[in-house]
Amino acid sequence: MKFTIKRNSFLNSLGDVQRAISGKTTIPILTGVKIVASEEGLTLTGSDSDISIESFITTGDDNADLTIERAGAIVLPARFFSEIVKKLPEDTMDIEVGMNFQTTIKSGSASYNLNGLDANSYPHLPVIDTQESFTLPTKLLKQVISQTVIAVSTHETRPILTGINMVISEGKLFAVATDSHRLSQRVVPLAMDMIDGDKTYNVVIPGKSLVELSRTIDEDVDSVEMMITENQVLFKTENMLFYSRLLEGHYPDTSRLIPDSASTEITFQAGTLLAAIDRASLLSHEGKNNVVKVAITPERVEISGNTPEVGNVKEDIAYVAVSGEPLEISFNPDYMKDALRTFAGAEIKVKFTTAVRPFIIVPTEDDQTFVQLITPVRTY
Amino acid sequence: MKFTIKRNSFLNSLGDVQRAISGKTTIPILTGVKIVASEEGLTLTGSDSDISIESFITTGDDNADLTIERAGAIVLPARFFSEIVKKLPEDTMDIEVGMNFQTTIKSGSASYNLNGLDANSYPHLPVIDTQESFTLPTKLLKQVISQTVIAVSTHETRPILTGINMVISEGKLFAVATDSHRLSQRVVPLAMDMIDGDKTYNVVIPGKSLVELSRTIDEDVDSVEMMITENQVLFKTENMLFYSRLLEGHYPDTSRLIPDSASTEITFQAGTLLAAIDRASLLSHEGKNNVVKVAITPERVEISGNTPEVGNVKEDIAYVAVSGEPLEISFNPDYMKDALRTFAGAEIKVKFTTAVRPFIIVPTEDDQTFVQLITPVRTY
After folding, report:
1. CB contact under 8 A, A311 and B283
2. What's the CATH number where B183 sits?
3. DSSP states of A198-216
4. Which UniProt keywords apply (chains A, B) (predicted)?
5. What is the pLDDT of residues A243-292, one digit of tens each?
6. Are residues A241 and A268 in the same domain?
7. Which of A83, A275, A283 sits opposite B282 (nearest CB)?
């Protein structure tokens, strides 16, 4: 294998596939990046066996200025190799594989010789044996992930809750996550490619995979193609393949958890409420119980917290409108902060039923496609 | 105690004194910040008993808009209190101390009640019983610290080497640090205030204290006054006092360590050499021995490294001029990188005697007032 390429282009692709590479893997070859050179271009691969990422650079790519002199393949130690590429003195670099997988990296007057590994020993990527796919605008996909991933469980006691449940049905993508204390749900319309509109998919994708996916896909990529098989999902863009395993098991039915009526309703600017909760949480974080209280009357909305070890706090929160029954309710302020951040400063409605029933937060302008639910804390 | 103040001004002072406050102290009251309000203004104090910082805000300060309504003093939990002040909703805040050291912090509609501590229990600051002082331009003081602190030892086996030796004599400040593998030395002229020109001071100031001092003093403060007593040093600016304890014991005599002749001499741009050493060190960091080799002939200067576990590297380094005997010498690249960074990209001379004797680096334009010394590594 021998090729010449612009360092910046190569670093971009290397950075993408590195997201899948973990230093902690038990399979030594997976700490490496696989590089394959063919007539068409370069393919880089990284994997931690949960996630695999493949990135392509074609010989026609003007930014890459790629010249393949000899086809071939090698696996190089990912972290260390990428540090070298970052620090090379010139814009262009040459890579050549010699005897015994010895790989020479040259740029200007600097020359490195690295011990590579046989690319034939690198595990095979999952096979995606379906032609059926859906297309999602990149921006929308990233939004759906960021809005729901906050409610993913971080505990392995119920592994199925560490994923986001995605249901594709009737031309819509329905995404929901819950850690049993809170729930996030978003529905978006879907463009279907080569697929029977009546077909339904119901999968659970690990939250970690979706966070990495969101970080890996560039903002300037318009859309992402999604393909589902029995135990894998593949997200595809022009220059990248992103594979994730699916979680096994049945996701709990969450459809009846969201209350459909409210006895108390307040309209806020999400940013105003977030700042007030944030201030109150400073105090609750110092105590044993991380709880703040909101007292609602027709005249005022007051937030308060009492942590005897350090002190107490109270504040009148500015609101847009309030209606319904007076109420006192206590909750974990961190759940509320996570939820409020997903509204990006828009106007929101908070809908309560009683002090012991879950309450929901929805955008004022659309209470059908996006909802955050939080279970209150009993304080008596 | 009761006062009103602009939050930003207060936060600046609070940030300064917080540098001295450690969460890990064994004396609980030192996790707090002491606030004293008098007719003249506010005094904030933080201390970890090694370093103490006092910061003043006068009632005449336009930016602070300080109004003292009632004099008094309190100690508040530093980290937590500063988080609160940072997040208050309005530009201005009120602080009032009530019964049992209960302290109310108000801003807009937010109101915090904190449990304070009796300011009378706060330790007294060191007494500086000298009128003799020297004045140093802030920029120069920061430069001297950053140029010498790299060679300070981080091991407590010889505590005296964890400090910078500062000798004031004949109108000059002489600063030196060594960890016995390398040495940094800088000499600067000194403006003497109220001091007999013949008097000599010889102290060892903890490297950590000087790093904090450097971070605490604003660039826009012109000069710093320095006062020395038997076991304390005080650095004084218009609005701040910075106290540090001195290290006890005799600093080793370093004057004979610096070779006064050279058999091989190379002139480099510091940045060019730094980049090449940095590249070679990527490889040496992966091996057991963190060593790179430089081979000098009249025709070329080559750096190389060999770490059998991962590979090898070699590079011709661009130089300005080379003279003297051919030489091969090996050294720790990290010591070299630290040293080269202190020259801020200037042109430098590296002067070698033999492969087993220390070599020195000096600025081309002035080889008398600043020198970095590094001991090579024997590789045979």
Report:
1. no
2. 3.10.150.10
3. T--EEEEEEHHHHHHHHHH
4. Cytoplasm, DNA replication, DNA-binding, DNA-directed DNA polymerase, Nucleotidyltransferase, Transferase
5. 999 999 999 999 899 998 999 999 999 999 999 999 999 999 988 889 99
6. no
7. A83
Please indicate, yes or no, if residue B272 is contained in any of the structural domains.
yes
- At residue A380, does pLDDT exceed 80? no
Task: Using an 8 Å CB-CB cutoff, list chain A residues near B113.
Answer: 311-313
Which pair of structure tokens corresponds to residue B232? 């304390």
Give CA separation, A364 vs A267, A345, A351, A369, B325, in Å.
8, 12, 11, 11, 80
Tokens for B126, please give them.
């060191």
Residue B297: CATH number of its domain: 3.70.10.10
Predicted pLDDT of residue A191: 76
| Among B residues 103-162, those touching chain A with beta carbons less than 8 Å apart | 103, 109-115
Q: Residue B84: which of A102, A112, A282 has the nearest Cβ? A: A282
H-state helical runs in B98-257 = 138-148, 207-216
Same domain, yes or no: B288 and B210: no
**Domains identified in chain B, total number:** 3
Residue the block writes with tokens 């108000």: B106
Q: What percent of chain A has pLDDT over 70?
A: 98
| pLDDT on residue A366 | 85
Chain B contacts of A316, Cβ < 8 Å?
109
**Helices A78-87 and A7-18 sit at what angle, rounded to 10 degrees?**
150
Residue A204 CA, chain-centre distance (Å), reads 13
pLDDT at A197: 63
A80, A111, A318 member nearest B315 (Cβ): A111
pLDDT per residue as tens digits for the range A22-62: 988 889 999 999 999 999 999 999 999 899 999 999 999 99
Its domain, for residue A183, covers: 133-245
Residue A168's beta-bridge partner residues? A173, A201
> How buried is residue B132: exposed, middle or buried, by Cβ count under 10 Å (0-12/13-18/19+)?
middle
pLDDT tens by residue, A119-173: 999 999 988 888 888 889 999 999 999 999 999 999 989 999 999 999 998 889 9
Residues of chain B with pLDDT under 70: 193-197, 380
Domain boundary among A245, A272, A307: A245
Residue B366: partners with Cβ closer than 8 Å, 6 or more residues away: none
In this complex, do A313 and B110 lie within 8 Å of one another by their Cβ atoms?
A: yes
Q: Name every chain B residue with its beta carbon within 8 A of the beta carbon of A112.
A: 283, 311-313
**Selection from A335, A339, A333, A331 nearest residue A376 by Cα:** A331
SS3 at position B43 = strand
When scoring B93, B109, B337 by the number of chain A Cβ atoms within 10 A, the one with the most, hence best to mutate, is B109
Which residue in B279, B316, B319 has the most chain A C-beta atoms within 10 A of its own C-beta, making it the best mutation to test that interface? B279
DSSP secondary structure of A120-165 = GGSPPPPP-----EEEEEHHHHHHHHHHHGGGS---TTSGGGGEEE
Count helices and strands (H / E) in chain A.
6, 27
Structure token pair of residue A289: 């119980």
| Phi then psi dihedrals of residue B313, to 5 deg | -145, 145
pLDDT over threshold 70, residue A193: no
* Beta carbons of B275 and A87 less than 8 Å apart: yes
> How many CB pairs (< 8 A) connect A and B?
84
Contacts of B102 in chain A (CB under 8 A): 311
